[in-house]
Amino acid sequence: MAVQISPSILSADFARLAEEAAAVPNADWLHVDVMDNHFVPNLTLGLPVVESLLKATSTPLDCHLMIEDPDRWAPAYAEAGAGSVTIHAEAAKAPVRTLRQIRSLGARAALALNPGTAVEPYEGLLGEIDMLLLMTVEPGFGGQKFLDMVLPKIRTARTLVERHGGQIWIQVDGGVTTETIERCAEAGADVFVAGSAVYGADDPSAAVDALRSQATATAGRS
Ligand code: DX5
Ligand code: ZN
What we know:
8-stranded parallel beta sheet, 36% helix, 222 residues, 18% strand, binds D-xylitol-5-phosphate, binds zinc ion, 8 helices
């Protein structure tokens, strides 16, 4: 289980996104939070910004769509060149079709679950996804406190994924810091989104290294 770090540009300076992307050359992904002010009470950015960012960085983009009607909008992010496109289970009306479209357009397909959404009802979708995102805060804002209540769900998800063959990545997003990352890794997560812990640090690149080494040490023990 290789540890991957995906800094969230939600905590970066939106007026300098190319420089902010370049500040974390050691990141595996750049996490892009697309919010529509309907699915979540916040508004961020959409496809035009993603298209510009794709031209400005060689780091693959991990697009997390916190929007209503992802069935309509998600394929365009894959078509634009995002490396991974995540839709929320709570918002998708045709997840099988949408996840298949994302894959057929060459991106990794991922399904996200809010803290209060159980994972077991989605076991049947594991064959359609490359990554499961378990939110460790309520989606909408950076800098929130990590929700420990999600840890048992990460363990359950790890068991389901292993039963399924172990190829699906488990991503955690929200409140992931050097204080909380070990708990997530120990529970079975392998892809870690971090916004404020990376872009709020004096040296974002060093913060990525610190998170990675902590998670790797823990993953190696569990
Ligand atoms: C929250 C977003 C997160 C956010 C995480 O809804 O999905 O990606 O940027 O920020 P931190 O790491 O500060 O909790
Ligand atoms: Zn996110």
